[in-house]
Amino acid sequence: MTEGLLYIQTEVYPALLKGFWVSLQLIAPSALCGLAIGIMVGVLRIYGNRPVMAAANTFVAIFRGIPLVVQLFIWYFGLPHIGIYLSPFLASVLGFSLCSGAYHSEYIRGALLSIKRGQMLAAQSLGFSKVRMIFSIILPQALRRALPGCGNEIIYLIKYSSLAYMITCIELTGQGKILASNSFKYTEVFLMIGVCYLVMTSVASIILGRVEGRLRIPGFEQQRT
Amino acid sequence: MMRHHVPIFHTFFRAMERMPESLIAIMDALPYLLQGSIVTLIVVVGAMALGFALGVPLAVGQVYGHPALRRFIAVYVWFFRGIPLLVFLFLFYFGLCTAFDINLSAFTVAIIVLGLISSAYQSQIFRGAILSLPEGQLKAARALGMSDFKAISFIILPQALRLSIPGWSNEYSILLKDSAVTYALGVAEIMARAHFVATRTYQHLPLYFTAGVIFLVLTWVGTKALRLLEEKARIPGYSPHGL
Amino acid sequence: MTAPILRIENISKRYGKKDVLKGASLDVNEGDLKILIGPSGAGKSTLLQCINFLVKPDEGRIWLDEQEVHYANKRDLYAYRQKVGMIFQDFNLFDHLTALENVRIGMVRVKGMGKAEAGERAVMELERVGLKEHMQKYPAQLSGGQKQRVSIARALAMDPKVMLLDEPTSALDPELIGEVHAVIRDLGNNGMTMIMATHQIGFASSLASEIVFMEDGRILERGTPDKIFNHAENARTREFCSKITELYGERG
After folding, report:
1. Residue-wise pLDDT tens digits, C184-241
2. With bands split at pLDDT 50, 70 and 90, how would you rate the model's confidence at C10?
3. Chain B: residue nearest C138 by CA?
4. Nearest CA of chain A to the CA of B160: how many Å?
5. DSSP state of C69
6. Does residue A21 fall inside a structural domain?
């Protein structure tokens, strides 16, 4: 028993910590970039002119329709075909940002659609330019409405960051695989890893709930369908 | 960081140069890839079926069951929705199978794991649908003398399941994409085959594009089929309550 | 004197801190039409739902045909409910079934009748309420009055001994109330025992064998329509009735 505990302390713990750190480094920038892309694309899908809207919609259809694994493989194994070489880390962040950006844009788009037309008319009659109107009036409200959806997408991101392993970026799951292969303690290691992710997603959910609560404006809630 | 500074034109020409061999590679590999799509579809359909078979009782238990049962189901859902698919696949295939000395193929494990995770998500879809029905439906059924089991089977579920079809359609496209992850266990689905051919022909980009297109087609076909199902099951004039 | 077909003794129900029903008792003879009147929140609906145990009373006992109903025993409860039909304010037709299937399902799934036999009986009941031509329609395609008539047919198909009607016309547009009243009057003339909660005083007094006035969870007074409306003993009863007749006009 103590031998097992010692093993955990000297080998497992540091390896998992290293992996966890890499996971965080993957998740944070991807979440931010993804959200930024999502807002931009969402806005373009609603307020852009015809060709821009079509391009944005196509982007979303493709990146939501193709499995993330395929996307990652294209960035890491595929790009060298035309001479671009990305590190596993960079390919992962790129893949996660674009894919989650497409999903975020769906929620942003839904939120933008739900803002009453009257808001737009009022802003326009006050003399706001289209761009100003979008950023000062509409978007702040839309972001509140999109929060549950976007928040959920970030929780999904925490989970699918594990796929970075498949293009050789060694994060938490990857470290686990290495550890387990060396020690043959597959069940224990992966249970621990599972628990780590469970903790991450649960903490994220709680934070999301808190933020939603903080930002709540009385009477503003969208009708839950 | 990028290893080479690559001017845009250079990249473009390189791609155009390799076009003909790319197309040949795709044509050659296509039958092999399409066979993979059959494997993919079986995995997806199997997982959806398992998810359904477990999801319905879970949903019913969560809405109508004993408080202790409800708590257990809530924990089950939290557990299966909180851990990445890849971790579950490794845990089951390498971990539990060896621990309990069960000899299952990667294919079987893939269906089981995807099915269990899907059951957690599907249970919430069904639960939402059940909760959206007016209270009066159950009351009227009880007033006629139906047991709760009969009331749920003949009155609640037929309506709730109809309402769940859009959510199910969503679940299909998610499972289809998740099936690509099972490549990590060696399941011979589309991604695995694309990678296999790519490592031999060095035609990575064209082959993964092709794989992507196949997935898009499968998604489109499946979604259309489910929309047909929704049309068939539609009750004239019936609209979801509260909408 | 023959024994009452339904006897309700001392029913009480509490929700949290609020006493919704306080010791209500009632005897119903065969062929009676008892009408419950009273302000909102008086407990009329709760009392009706306690009678067929859709709401479990905290205290009280019920006898049908001299047999006490032990609702803790599931099989007894289901058998009892088959003999007590209920009509809801919101109709509560099964939305995924046609009118015919709605009427038929109780017979097939609860009584265990064959589909063909049940189907024939269902058509008969729908004819009785005047809706035979609409039998293949779904609830969403029916008007409110038609829905309520289907729900009456559905209850009748179970051959109940007593019918409970919980404000059957409150959710209907005024011009549709008449058709439902016609069906209820018909039932009364054919000897069905009924307990009905309603705000439709005119209709009630023309049919009722007894009016029961409830307020605050208690039965304050009961008597013939003439007595309650013209010579009520209780001050609250008089107050309520005068307001109602102002509102609804005609009586009797």
Report:
1. 999 999 999 999 999 888 888 888 899 999 999 999 989 988 888 888 888 888 888 8
2. very high
3. B236
4. 15
5. P
6. yes
Which residues in C lie closer than 8 A to residue B136 (C-beta atoms)? 88, 90-92
Helix (H, G, I), strand (E, B) or coil at C169: coil
- Given a contact cutoff of 8 angstroms between Cβ atoms, the answer to whether A201 and A153 are in contact is no
B8-233 maps to which CATH number?
A: 1.10.3720.10
Q: Which of C78, C90, C109 sits opposite B154 (nearest CB)?
A: C109
Q: Tell me, what CATH number does A92's domain have?
A: 1.10.3720.10
ipTM entry: 0.86
Instruction: Identify the CA nearest to C60 among candidates C25, C18, C99.
Output: C25
Beta partners for residue C166, in sequence order: C197
pLDDT value, residue A222: 47
- Which chains sit next to C, with 3 or more Cβ pairs under 8 A? B
pLDDT value at position B1?
45
Check pLDDT > 90 for residue B217.
yes
Q: Residue A224: inside a domain, yes or no?
A: no
d(CA B171, CA B174): 5
Average pLDDT of the segment spanning B44-51:
96
Total domains in chain A come to: 1
CB B122 within 8 A of CB B52: yes
Within 8 A of B145 by CB-CB distance, chain C residues are 78-82, 106, 110, 158
- Domains of chain C with CATH codes: 6-248 (3.40.50.300)
For strands C218-223 and C210-215, give the pairing: antiparallel
Most C-contacting residue of B144, B146, B163 (CB-CB within 10 A), to test interface: B144
Domain ranges of chain B: 8-233
Return the closest-CA partner of residue B108 out of B164, B187, B199: B187
Query: What tokens does A207 get?
Result: 């934070």
| pTM (two decimals) | 0.85
In a domain, A160, yes or no: yes
**Structural domain boundaries enclosing A190:** 2-215
Dig out the tokens for C224 from the structure.
């013939």
- DSSP one-letter code for A78: I
Nearest to C109 among B134, B146, B236 (CB): B146
Six-digit token pair at C216?
Answer: 């605050």
Each residue of C65-98: pLDDT tens digit?
999 999 899 999 999 999 999 999 999 999 999 9
